[in-house]
Amino acid sequence: MNPPDPQERTPAERVAGAMASFSRDLGAMSAFRLESCIHCGMCADACHYYIATEDPQYTPIWKVEPFKQAYKREAGAFAPLARLLGFKRAVTAEQLTQWQHLLFDSCNLCGRCSLICPMGIDVAELIEQARHAMFEAGLAPPELYAKAAHQQLTGQPEASVEPYRDQLIAIGARFGVTIPLDATGVDVMLCVPRTDIVQYPAAVAALARVMTHLAVSYTFRSDALVAENYGHYAGSREWQRDISLRLIDQAIACGAKTLLIPECGHAYSVLRWEAADLYGAPLPFEVLAVTEYLAKEVEAGRLALEAATLESATFQDPCQLSRKGGVQHAPRTLLHAMGIELKEMQDHGAFSFCCGGGGGVVDIASAAPLRYRTVETKLREIAATGAATLLTSCSDCRRTFDDASRHFGEHSLDGGPPAASLLELVAQHLPNTASAP
Amino acid sequence: MDLLGFARGPALEVSVGIFCAGVVWRIAAFALLKIRREQSRPRQSVLRYVSEGLLATASRSWPHPEFTKRTGAGEALGYSYHMGLFVVILLYGPHIALLGSLVGFTWPGLPSPLITGLAVVTLTLFCGVLFRRLTSPVMRMLSNFDDYFTWFITMLVLVTGLAASAHLGARYETLLAIHILSVDGLLVWFPFGKLMHAFYIMPSRAINGAILARKGAPS
User: Fold this and answer.
1) How far is B130 from chain A (nearest CA, A)?
2) How confident is residue B168, by pLDDT bands cut at 50, 70 and 90?
3) Is 90 exceeded by the pLDDT of residue A434?
4) Do B30 and A59 touch (CB under 8 A)?
5) Is the pLDDT assigned to residue B150 strictly greater than 80?
């Protein structure tokens, strides 16, 4: 017999859960955003899902339509009038179920739509809140729900034969780098993307190698290794908080002054910008992305890099770092320090298109066909640069591109150059480390 | 009391009252909700991100170059009819006289024939806006009663104004009364629908811009 579905709900429970979450999240700012939309539809022209398909349902602001409807009907200034005159229908469970595809499969929370709105509305922020409501309605995609539940309980988003801690030690041994674990009184605490442990171990080794080279006191913590936050992806505010607190508690326990976020865009966004709100106070340490940390070291003259042999490269700006997190110059500083000619894509920096995998979308099986269709826009821009190497500083971007390469390769199409890690490239160009990973 | 007296007397007073109370209530209803205090450390100083937010009120007036190809034409159409409306409202002699009596000073206007021509152009652009809303799959999907009624009531003000200034179809006093009644109607509808964006647009750009700038992100 199959175990019961943890997200099983009656239709009434789905609506009640969604509306309770919506009310909890509704503040002056989100209400102002919902109020301000003038139905101009311009956000569609920023969204890679709409651009790839020309299907109006992928218009970003439409993705929060049930919640706009709920706001006008239940909470807006003239809500009683809207109910009385029947201007706004009550949100239904069928409607919420229909919107699961729009809020999860076809939104990377990339925030490109937030840059086009003539009213200045941060549409991505509204979509993130709508995901909270969907989670409370029992409508998170099963893959994200399962990983979030597992991570909230164990710290790992999935079971593994060997715990991540042991895998980390094995990576250190395999690549010949020291992996300090559970030290205290350190300056820097590190975490790693689960994607890197499982798929790109050289990136984990590169992280340790660079930190060792800088002679910084640092440590990984067995109880808080994973950078990603599947609670965030699934839309659970509570699990997002629990997962963030695991890292925060460990950073405090080891006395770190800096929590360094590896190449993971969403981990940066969650820990740099959202974790303090969930913690309830400013964090007692700074949160830095590894690229900005290394760029600061380069700018301060503490890190010199050897010239790279790469002729040229193009760079995929991870949305959460570049567009939403303000980390645009750091990767370019590092590329410049290695003498690499950067061939920018047509849309780059803050205006870069998402890889299509962000927001947990790369983990959702049902989202794959649409994701492949969407990534074509990006692949065309990459190909147009003529660069032989595609670099990025987000393991989910890398995983998404590699997956697209495989997919298009199977269909005898050009999936573009394989994506490489900027961090690994930096580790390879530390002075006297010619054979580094 | 004749129709004109009613239109610019009790009807105008009531509609202005509804407009003022409605606008205040519509804003208060969301502004009094909880405001989440940002606990993360800002990337920039308060002065810097507030300044960038204020700059966004201007910079968001036109799409970033990356978006212009897809949205430039639509945005140009939108701005054109807005500018047409502003010119007709603010630079037409009789309007200046009315507004001047309220604020205590007047300003130079444009010749009536020019205003009439601009009003006709604005009317044409306004029809273009409706055509676009009806033919664009995205806009059609997003549109509701508010969008169409707001279009209708604004159009009505323009058409009745043109008819009154050109003395078309009836006695001038009757045409003027109808025009003023249409303005009364617009004032009554204003707080209930999307015309409120007139009050929202600058604060929305500034606040969202400042929130993004706090993170060092572009707005």
Assistant:
1) 12
2) confident
3) no
4) no
5) yes
Per-residue pLDDT tens digits for A54-69:
999 999 999 999 999 9
Measured between CB atoms, which of B26, B137, B208 is closest to A77?
Answer: B26
Residue B36 above 60 pLDDT?
Answer: yes
Domains in chain A: ranges and CATH: 6-139 (1.10.1060), 143-298 (3.40.50), 304-428 (3.40.50)
Mutate to test the interface with B, among A22, A24, A25, A42 (most CBs of B within 10 A): A42
Cα B103–chain centre separation: 20
Do the Cβ atoms of B207 and A32 come within 8 Å?
Answer: yes
Q: Residue B133 has which token pair?
A: 């809303």
Strand partners, A233: none
The CATH number that domain B3-26+40-214 falls under is 1.20.950
Specify the pTM.
0.94
Q: Do B145 and A277 touch (CB under 8 A)?
A: no
Q: How far apart are CA A344 and CA A374, in angstroms?
A: 20
Q: Which of B20, B142, B189 should one mutate to test binding to chain A, selecting the residue with the greatest count of A CBs within 10 A?
A: B142
**How far apart are alpha carbons A335 and A210 in whole angstroms?**
15
Tell if the CB–CB gap between B142 and A121 is shorter than 8 Å. Answer: no
Residues A294 and A292: their CA atoms lie apart, in Å, by 5
Taking the C-alpha atoms of residue A209 and residue B120, their distance in angstroms, rounded to an integer, is 71
